[in-house]
Amino acid sequence: MASCAVGDPSEGVKDGSGGATADSSETPSGDPFAVPRALDLSAVSDPCELLTQQQVQRLGAGRSQADGKSPWGEDQCRWRNQRMNFSIAPDTTQPEGLEFAAFTNTEDGKPTHEVNGYPAVSPKATDLTCTTFVGVSKRDVVSVSYTVGTDGRNDPRYSEPCAMSDRIAGMVLDNLPAE
Questions:
Q1: CATH number for the segment(s) 36-175
Q2: Cα dihedral sign for 106, 116, 80, 162?
């Protein structure tokens, strides 16, 4: 099983490259779900615009395509090629925010790690797939689901699914305005 709290060579970078991941730890307030600064996920109405064109090119992801509705009923977007397949789905409808994802996907009901200082949950990862849920405010969550493609399996840039889902989630965080 792939590890979900994998560091990224671009740790600490604030150029839209995705930034760092770290093991989860409680904030000084004692709330593991506290965010450093609430972000406005609803400011971007089209999930295909949650990544910039420059970020998409840096990932080598190709064109985006609308991908119907997420399990919670909001629009989601997918990028797919022979190296990777990933989707981004905002969740502004469930009032429990990341607490719901943690409660339903972890043994202890707490975040599993952080992405750019924001609490995150990566449940049930495999060698080829990983989903990262990141709390961007007390209520809102962004989900990134990543699958390694056939051509990405032997390429270290694409072969670690949780590192990639965290990296992409970090890019999304870099693009969201404060509430």
A1: 3.40.1000
A2: negative
